[in-house]
Amino acid sequence: MTDPQQQSTQTASLILTPSLTDSLTSRRNVIGTLGAATAALCASTGTASAMWKWGGMKDVPVVKVNTISSDTRVGKGATPSKNIGGFPEEWVRLQGRNLKDYTNYLNSLKLRNISAQDVITPHAKEHGSVWNTLPPREWWTRMGFTLRVIDRISSEMRTPVMEIVSAYRTPAYNARCGGAKSHSWHMANVAVDVRFDTSARKVTSATRSLRDRGLFKGGVGSYSSFTHVDTRGTNVNW
Is residue 215 part of a domain? Predict the structure, then answer.
């Protein structure tokens, strides 16, 4: 599939557009733009792509995401550890080789303020007799874009990520989560519930400000102890 990225003649801005199947081109705008204010702070580029299937609908977004090139780590300033561990043995057995491969993928993103352990931990949970799992392999790269947004929020606020409360959730596991919507974006592997070392209200405000400056298009939900961030492609607040 042809990469749909288009660059303007002005080097200060980078226009990002999704590649969609013909049937949905006019119906959905999956990913928006990085504005000039964002692009000016960015240098290296990562790519995320995924297959999207909901009720028979399908599109293939292809995203180019710029990341900050300067040293913007917060907290102790050390590179997040690449080591993982401490997960329930039964859960590890169920994941098989996917656990190692997903860890390698997350480490390849070279996030400055988020470790693979941070991301994987909320997948290793159980509600009743239902285990959550890692996302389907063909959806892994979706989460990369959302994690880059979270990483940028941490750098902008100079505030460490304390916990990723929730990332991907299987439909069965999602149904066991109190208050979770039946079509939650967590099930599409594009959503993160996150806590920072500051009030959730400040995080929500900073996230919406970055989004309004063009960093991403997606949902930002304000809760008492965490902030929901997703990259669904349309801006929604709650």
Answer: yes
